[in-house]
Write a structure and sequence with these properties.
- The chain is α/β, with parallel strands linked by helices.
- The chain contains ten helices and ten strands.
- Helix content is about 50%, strand content about 20%.
- The chain has an eight-stranded mixed β-barrel with strand order 1-2-4-5-6-7-8-9, surrounded by five helices.
- Strand 7, helix 8 and strand 8 form a beta-alpha-beta unit.
- Helix 1 packs across helix 2 and helix 3 runs parallel beside helix 5.
- About 35% of the residues are buried.
- The N terminus is likely disordered.
- The structure holds ligand C2E and magnesium ion (MG) (3 copies).
- The site of one magnesium ion has 4 residues, from loops.
- The site of ligand C2E has 23 residues, from strand 2, helix 2 and strand 6.
- This is GGDEF domain-containing phosphodiesterase.
- It comes from Sessilibacter corallicola.
- Keywords: Membrane, Transmembrane, Transmembrane helix.
Amino acid sequence: QVKEGGRNGIAFFNEAMAEQAKNQLVLEAELHKALSADQYELFYQAKVDVQTGMLTGAEALLRWKHPERGYVSPGIFISVLESSGMIIEVGQWILEEACRSLQKWQALGVWNDDMHLSINISPRQFRRSDFVDEVKKTLMDIPVHRGTLDIEITESVVIGNIEETISTMEELALEGISFSLDDFGTGYSSISYLKRLPVSTLKIDQSFIRDLGEDRSDKVLVESMSSMGRLLGLKVVAEGVEEQEQLELIRDFGCDEYQGYFFSRPIPADQFYKLLHENSLKQSLKASRAG
Ligand code: C2E
Ligand code: MG
Ligand code: MG
Ligand code: MG
């Protein structure tokens, strides 16, 4: 009986594996087609100053506009782009598209030079030997104001090759690019990386913010990460702020900026432009009151 069960177990396992492999292939083919069919789109989520409520920039987030399923979030497909290597091509498109948006908003006068547009770069793309050249070339083709583009990396970029990571970052910094350490606190060695990597921003992962109102240890952790970041001279951003109470807590803990549904979900470029426009009106109003 044990043997039979074992055999069934194995047969079931194989079927599940085959099914999964098939699904993966179908998805891969669809994702490949998506690039030529223009089905990728960048959404933008506001980054907001905790003290003033004014925009400090945005994070660009990839969406797949599926003809039947509508907008698909990257949670479902980014790992397939990575494992198949398609993330290189799509990642290059993301960089270009983000620069096109930034260039437009700068030309329209709604993007201040102290704002940052962040893009997420996968380890696989970041580690390629020609990554720096691709970025330089893109910035020549689609020039944006110096110091306005930011790259978010996670510590998985670093694993195994910290020296190389640092030198890539230093080369990109020469092009005026700044760096944020994303999903901080979720990895294994974040703190030692924080010490060595030339990042200017630390992003506290949303898993620490989610239950911030109720969870005593999350409070301690967020406050500690925030003061550590500040003492290291970094800007501290809290991700995933959904409620007023969370905003008040991160303000007390000394975070500089936040992102989250409380202010805005990630939205398409034309909608984000409206946010930028309102923000710049508010800003001129403030300036005229002050002056
Ligand atoms: P991430 O870079 O940490 O992005 C933050 C994620 O949190 C986004 O999910 C965003 O929509 C979500 N989020 C923001 N505010 C809230 C909130 O208040 N509550 C909750 N529950 N969630 C919030 P999204 O867009 O689904 O992206 C998931 C992950 O996929 C990203 O995590 C990033 O690792 C990856 N990703 C997204 N876009 C890109 C991209 O263009 N390139 C690469 N390489 N990875 C990307
Ligand atoms: Mg990010
Ligand atoms: Mg994050
Ligand atoms: Mg994340």
